[in-house]
Amino acid sequence: DKACILVPGTLGLGLVLYLYHRYFRENRKNAHGDVIEERNSPNGTFKGRRDSELRIESLKPEAIRIFKSIAPPLDFKSHKGQGGRIAIVGGSKDYTGAPYYAGMAALKTGAELLYMFASAEASPALKVYSPELMVTPFYGTSLCSGTNEWVSRTASIITERMKRFHAIVIGPGMGRNKHLVPVIRNVLHEAARAKIPTVLDADGVWAVCQDPEMLNQAGMVVLTPNKVEFEKLYTSVMQVERKLDGDLKADVESLCRKLNNAVIIRKGRSDFISNGIISLECVEMGAPKRSGGIGDVLAGVTATCVAWAQMKSSLSPKQDFKESQKNIVYAAHCACSIVRKAWEITFSDCGRGSCVP
DSSP string spanning 18-68? Predict the structure, then answer.
């Protein structure tokens, strides 16, 4: 009941796409044998079984409360971009998928404009992934020099657009380029001056390990290390290896305080979120399969949520930095809940075949 048709040339591509849509897209089945449908809902287009849509109401009560308190209203009164303008700094010659996942996750969460800054080698691929991504190459791998002039010029490509952003994600697919560490430091300091929250993921966390003092003058920062990245970050900052049987909650909180009360999302079996003062745990089940790209999705969702939280905080003239940090912690918890629940639903549909795209 299955056939493979090979047709060369441009006409062949069109025919293959047509057959793909008619046969595969309309007859997909999940791990349970149910036909997977594509349909529109008031909150966007979702894929899955009739009973497996991700709706905010399916989250735990605390996450629902947080989401409803920070999400801007959809009331026909706003202008383009007022629902969230997110910048992604990442992408290198070896990695183009990670920044794409982070950017599209930010948009799918509810952000309205997505700016992306990537290496010259990664930019062409990223430009064709989606027309919604506004991609700007900000350095070339072969031209990295590390001089003060180069660092200043490279960072300025991002910082001169800083007023456009509501949040910045640094790290997905960026690669471990030592010349970019001072560039990231400059971007963080400019973001602090502009009171723009920043999410440091993957290679962004690695950059902090190389220069922990870059967070001394940083503002609202969220770091998203997994288990291995957390151990390395702890060792780099605390100058001592973490005890494997140590108290995770206490260790996360002490590391947050050492990093100027930055917010840390320590990813794991459950996600632990803290700024050294307030600590929360996200216990949404998630799924047992750990496909590549989930962390990038979390970075993008987190960026939108913390952007919304800061946008709402900025409307209150009496809100101080500590109160803003508190709101960032709750927004990060909401982001974790959304991603873990979405992945749980994906796994219920696709089982071992679950993947991020």
Answer: HHIIIIIITS-B-TTSPBPEEEEETTEEEEE-TT----GGGS-HHHHHHHH
Element (H, E) at 167: strand 167-170
Number of CB atoms found within 10 A of residue 94's CB? 11
Find the helix or strand (DSSP H, E) in which 187 lies. Answer: helix 181-193
Q: Which of 337, 341, 305 is nearest to 70 (CA)?
A: 305
Please list the residues that pair with 113 across neighbouring strands: 85
User: What would the two tokens of residue 349 be?
Assistant: 């549909």
Residue carrying structure tokens 């706003």: 78
Looking at the predicted structure, is the pLDDT value of residue 32 above 70? no
**What global pTM score does this model have?**
0.85
Instruction: Enumerate residues 6+ apart whose C-beta is below 8 A from 308.
Output: 70, 71, 72, 84, 110, 166, 331
Cβ(31)–Cβ(39) below 8 Å? no
